[in-house]
Each structure stands twice: as C-alpha cells, then as structure tokens.
Protein: Nicotinate-nucleotide--dimethylbenzimidazole phosphoribosyltransferase
Amino acid sequence: MLFDSTEPILAPDEQARADALAAVAGSGLGRLHELGAWVAACQGTFPPAPLERCRVVVFAGDHGVAKRGMSTLPPGHSVAQAADIGSGAGAVNVLARAAGASVRMVDVSLDHEARGDERVSRSSGAIDVEDAMTPEQFELSAELGRRVADQEIDSGADLVIPGDLGVGNTTVAAAVLGAFTHTEPVAVVGPGSGITDELWKIKVEAIRDAMFRVRTLVADPETVLRMIGSPDLVALVAFIGQSAARRTPVLLDGALVTVAAFLAERLAPGTKDWCQAGQLSPEPAHLIALQALELTPLIALDMNAGQGTGALAALPLVKAAAELLAD
Structure:
C-alpha cells in the first residue's frame, strides 16, 4: 500500500496566499509574485520565511528493460554516477552547493551488490516481459519513500526536491504514463540519454509491450506500478505523497519525478497543490504529466540529466520569490 492513511491531503493555506497576492499587487513581478504566494500558502503564513533548508533526495535504481540495448550509456553507468554523488562530485552536488541545498542519495535498486535498510532489490524486472517487482518489493519501496520523507521533514527540511538516477528510467516513465493516459508509445517516448533511430525503435517496442501487459488494469494503479514501474518510481510516488501530507513544498524535476507526482495525485488527491514544476525536459512524458497536473515549469533549459538538477537550476527563483515577499 503506497499511503498509510486514507485521509485527504489538506490544501495549502489560502488566506496566506491571498495576503501574499494582495501585498504585492501591481508590483510587476509576474510569476515570481505567484511563486512567492505559493511558498506562503505552503508555510501557512505571510510573509513567508526564507527557504534555508532545501533538501535534494535522489532515488537511484536500475531497470531490467534497459538490457534490451535501448540506451547509449554503458553498463554500470548508474552505479558510477551514484558513487560520484556520494563523493560530492556529481552534477547534482555542484548545483546544490550553488543553490544552497543539500543532497541525499538513496540506493533503492541499483544493479550491484549492496546491503542496507534503504535497499529493495538489485535492479528490477524487464517490464516488457515480466513484472518489475514482487508484491513484497513493492511494499518495501513504498515504505522506504514514506520513511525518507518523514526523516527529511523531521530533520527540518523546508522544501524537498525529489531526484532520480538510473539507466532506463525514461522508458519506465513513458510506459507508466502511457498506460494511464492512453497515449500511444510513439507519442510518449523520448530521447532519453540520446539515441539512434534503431535504438528508438527498440525503446518504442518495449514501451508498447509493457503497456499491453497492463491494458486492462489501469483502474488499479498499484498493480500497474508493480508490474511496469520500478522500485525507485514507487519510492518516489510515496515520497512525494508523504511530503504533501506533511505540508512540505515539493519542487519537481524531470520525467520520472513528474510521473511520480502524477501518480501521487491520482492516489492521494491534493498532492499537486504542494508541487511546483522546476523545469521542462525534452521528454514527451514529462510534458504530458505536467499538463495533467496543470503545472507550468519555471524554466526550460532542455536538461535531461535527472538527479534533481533541473529543479536545482530553478531553486534560486523559488528562494528569491519567497524573499521578495518577506522583504
């Protein structure tokens, strides 16, 4: 079960939002005005407090479907990237330092030998021909996402940025979103890490076959996620939904994260009110999910690196919007 409670997600404070909007009416600040009001509403107070404890949480996992040969990235790439993040040398670390945020990496299901209480599996099933995970792995992933959200919020995070890491994650995002939105594989598939026409065909076929496997099950989102999602995606859904339930603003990054927010909203209505779209990536699944959530991205720099990097590039705008209202 993805969420412990059946209680609805409470909305951000509309009075704080109204006070914020009234305070700078006619200021010419445009969307910065609205962004600052969103922060005030999430905090439930006007003027809003500065955002000083922003936290990036990268959920990492490999995907069996990537072994179909649809990526230009070599085997072991995700593990190497995770090691870079752990040493502080990843792109996300650099952008986090520049934006005044901190980074946590959660190895949910990378394809290597590892142990720990944050570990669910070694990679995941190839979703075009087999289930991504067992029911037990699904429950572990959901519990992990909720627990990590609670840990970060309890330790003082005032805004969270969920990130993703793993070869094949855009394929999973496209298959899951395509299944729920009834979008044809050719319309939801994207460039991923940068692929040739031949690799694009392989990717489309894998997404098509995965979607076919769950064609009659879309009324049961958790089963669809277990069959053609991935442990890291399930953890992301639970993390975003729990953050919203804990009244903590969420800044979204790319395709997999935004698809996770789309699913969290479907399972826990009201989640999207706590989310802001940091960026727009080149992935069609990303745009489709943003449109379904009725969110407009703050920036569009064609960033497709994952890890929360696109959201981090937009974080200074969110911080500035809050401080404009507080000044």
Summary: The chain has one domain: 52-314. The chain has a mean pLDDT of 93.
